[in-house]
Design brief:
It comes from Mucilaginibacter litoreus. Keywords: Repeat, Signal, TPR repeat. It is a single chain. Helix content is about 80%, strand content about 0%. The longest helix has 15 residues, at about 1-15. The chain has helices spanning about 1-15, 20-30, 35-50, 55-65, 70-85, 90-100, 105-115, 120-135, 135-150, 155-165, 170-185, 190-200, 205-220, 225-235, 240-250, 260-270, 275-285, 290-305, 305-320, 325-335, 340-355, 360-370, 375-385, 390-405, 410-420, 425-440, 440-455, 460-470, 475-490, 495-505, 510-525, 530-540, 545-555, 560-575, 580-590, 595-610, 610-625, 630-640, 645-660, 660-670. The N and C termini lie far apart (about 130 Å). Helix 13 (about 205-220) runs antiparallel to helix 14 and helix 34 (about 560-575) packs antiparallel against helix 35 (about 580-590).
């Protein structure tokens, strides 16, 4: 019995003595049951017994993390790493907390350690997210490539790589990634929605609509998808479908930014003017003291050309409730009426009411530019961009300022930035094309002209400017297929026939050119451009009287077009009427001081008159403004031949030839032996 008693007395010591591993095991059991606070108590006891036990710190850190005590978790992961520097998971989990706290640099440093010790798709994925949050989207793409190599069946990796590519403006690459993600996870509406966004960004509006529709079939409550599908319909001029989507989006989320504005714009574009005005009109009847309704009714009226009605609505909106948006839109209306001082006052008030309204700064900048206060305009545009870096129009205005100052490289940078946010904007593409011509980037310019033709926005004013710009750039053979395509889409635009006629004329097809000019005049009997250019073609046919008669008819219709005087100036040059040519080029410059080539042609005309001083002044100005334009050097070389300065003429011909002028090579062969 004595022996049994002795054994019994010692039994508690051997059975119930606890060590660190025991507490760690119990703690993990509690953690698996989600009893995290009890688990923390157990892990703490383990640490009391073994203060250097890395595993105890690691598991306690996990428990702290699960109850969102992030600072305690970070402290414990740090201890775990201190006592076990090869614990890749501790680095990974601490990195995730740093990312959650916005400490991306520290997170990336930890992810670097984790991936070096134990590469995994998750580690690369999380590091990619941290890099993306720091704006390093290319670094994110690189990490997703590594993650995909380890786990090529994870749809989310392609999804997020697609997002990173979208942020790099690589929408085509993003679409390719979304395609793979959708194949792997075809019921994920978000994937289809993101792909739709990228398709819209590259101008594939029909493809975007198909994807938005598919995404909505899976998730009918995605208000953004409905809204953006409306935008896509709007871009293909299916305004009724756009209106339907905007109204549906309002029922899902009436607080979506710019939703009512876009609805107002779509209503403005439908043929049913009464119906367009009716939507907000009926709403006003139901709620006559709602200032916002007058604001958007005013937008509809403004877009329909009823500026007086729009002004009354904006005034009423402001009377009921002063708002930054109402003042800003009234400022834009006053800008269109050339009331620049009042426009600036309204923009000032818009900013007073909401200093974070980026559009108000842009409106004020526009007024300041018209009032010749460029310094203030630049400051406002800078402020607007700080608030809304993705507002492409701010960059367009900066590009316009730079181009106006003849700083073409800066202008290109701004237009590129604008197009990174709105790649399918034909206005910006046209501006960039024209600047590219000025720096002799003809390949880039032609690419822009082709993009504009593919978009073919329903805007006759834009189309007319496009035709003039393309022809002025001298893309004759290259433009014929573009004009063929445009005519096939819209055979009622006379200027498309004029453009194709000019292209044919300069490629030697005079008969085809005359046919196109005549067709243009059948489509539009008041097409001054058709008369001007038919006059040029008649001149090529040696019909001088007929040429001048057509130019005169065109001027009678529109005496403010520089093309008339430019063409007639060249005709008069060929007819040896040098002073008449100078007079015409004077008219061109008077109408458009930015037509640098007109200065060069005037200098060339003056060389025949022996007016060397003025000739040199014209060419010096032209070269200063467009130092990369080969036509200017070619004309100056020819002018110098006229004044018997063959040495300098050959220098000019050589310069023009190095810039790609074939005509300059011909001149060199004749005069520079």
């Amino acid at each position: 019995m004595t022996r049994l008693v002795i054994a019994f007395l010692f039994l508690p010591f051997f059975c119930f003595a606890q060590n660190a591993e025991t507490y760690i095991g119990v703690g993990n059991t509690e953690a698996n049951l989600k009893n995290y606070k009890q688990a923390i108590t157990d892990f703490s006891k383990a640490i009391q017994l073994e203060p250097n036990n890395a595993r105890a710190y690691f598991y306690r850190a996990n428990a702290y993390n699960n109850i969102k005590e992030r600072d305690n978790a970070v402290a414990d992961y740090t201890k775990a790493i201190q006592y076990d520097p090869q614990n890749a998971a501790a680095y990974l989990y601490r990195a995730n907390i740093y990312s959650e706290q916005g400490k991306y640099s520290q997170a990336i440093a930890d992810f670097d350690k984790a991936t070096a010790m134990k590469p995994s798709a998750d580690a690369y994925h999380y590091r990619a997210n941290a890099k993306a949050n720091m704006g390093d989207h290319q670094g994110a793409v690189d990490d997703f490539i590594k993650a995909i190599a380890l786990d090529p069946k994870d749809a989310s990796l392609y999804e997020y790589r697609g997002v990173a590519k979208s942020n790099l403006k690589d929408n085509e690459g993003a679409i390719a990634d979304y395609d793979i993600a959708v194949r792997l996870d075809p019921k994920n509406s978000d994937l289809i929605y993101y792909r739709a966004n990228s398709k819209g960004n590259i101008g594939d509006y029909k493809g975007a609509i198909t994807d938005y529709t598919a995404a909505l079939a899976l998730n009918p409550k995605n208000a953004e998808a409905v809204f953006y599908r409306g935008n896509a319909y709007n871009n293909i001029r299916n305004y009724n479908a756009a209106i339907t989507d905007y109204k549906k989006a309002i029922t899902l989320n009436p607080k979506l930014p710019n939703l009512y504005r876009y609805l107002a714009n779509a209503l403005s574009n439908v043929n049913d003017k009464k119906g367009a005005l009716g939507y907000f009109g009926e709403a006003i009847k139901q709620d006559p003291d709602n200032a916002d309704l007058y604001l958007y009714d005013g937008l509809v009226k403004y877009n329909l050309g009823d500026k007086e009605g729009a002004m009354a609505d904006f005034d009423k909106s402001i009377e009921l409730k002063e708002s930054s948006e109402a003042y800003q839109n009234r400022a834009d209306l006053k800008l269109s009426a050339k009331n620049f001082d009042e426009a600036r006052e309204d923009a000032d008030r818009a900013i007073e009411l909401d200093s974070k309204n980026p559009y108000a700064y842009v409106s004020r900048a526009r007024a300041e530019l018209e009032l010749k206060d460029t310094t203030a305009a630049l400051a406002d545009l800078d402020q607007g961009i700080k608030m809304n870096p993705s507002n492409d129009y701010s960059y367009v205005l900066l590009g316009n300022i730079a181009a106006g100052r003849h700083n073409y490289d800066s202008a290109l940078g701004y237009y590129n930035k604008a197009l990174s946010y709105s790649p399918a904007d034909p206005e910006t593409l046209l501006k960039r094309a024209e600047v590219r011509i000025k720096v002799n980037d003809r390949d880039g310019a032609l690419a822009d002209y082709k993009k504009i033709a593919a978009i073919d926005k329903d805007d006759d004013n834009l189309r007319d400017r496009y035709v003039k710009s393309l022809i002025r750039a001298g893309f004759y053979a290259e433009s014929i297929p573009l004009f063929n395509s445009l005519i096939a889409k819209n055979g009622k635009n006379a200027n498309f026939y004029v453009g194709r006629g000019v292209a044919k004329q300069h490629t030697g097809d005079l008969q085809g050119a005359m046919l196109d000019y005549n067709t243009a005049l059948k489509v539009d009997t008041t097409s001054s451009l058709a008369y001007f250019n038919r006059g040029s073609a008649k001149f090529d046919q040696k019909d001088y009287n007929g040429a001048l008669a057509d130019i005169a008819k065109g001027i009678k219709i529109n005496d403010g077009q520089e093309d008339a005087y430019f063409i007639r100036g060249q005709i008069r040059l060929a007819m040896n009427n040098y002073q008449g040519a100078v007079d015409d080029f004077n008219s061109v410059v008077f109408i458009n001081l930015e037509n640098t080539i007109a200065f060069a042609w005037r200098g060339y005309a003056r060389s025949f008159l022996g007016d060397t001083e003025r000739m040199n002044a014209d060419f010096n100005y032209a070269v200063h403004i467009e130092p990369k334009n080969p036509e200017i050097y070619l004309l100056r070389g020819k002018a110098r031949i006229n004044i018997k300065d063959a040495t300098n003429a050959c220098t000019d011909f050589k310069q023009a030839a190095t810039m790609g002028s074939k005509a300059a090579i011909t001149q060199m062969q004749q005069y520079c032996k």
